[in-house]
Give the backbone structure.
Amino acid sequence: MGLPPAEVVNENPFYQRKTARHAGCQIDYMIHTKFDTLYVCEIKFSRNPIGSAVIREMRSKIAALSRLRGMSCRPVLIHVNGVSEDLKDADYFAHIVDMGDLLGRVH
């Protein structure tokens, strides 16, 4: 994603418990930058390309996420076996990361 390490405040999986004030949610991996940007990462391992249904899932998680006023959220998809054309065409994710490319896909 090209984030300089000096900009990263915190990076971890994240779990928010449900309370009377906000819904619960589980984020596979979240990066908080010093510019109050949250990169909300969904990690999908599937034998088939990931379809656009993941967008609804991400919107729901981001809507449930309790955050400070002024914080922005950038959705990120990390996958292994490709994404569908309709997902690409939706242009929802700030970044789509292919783990196979990062790890040097073996054929």
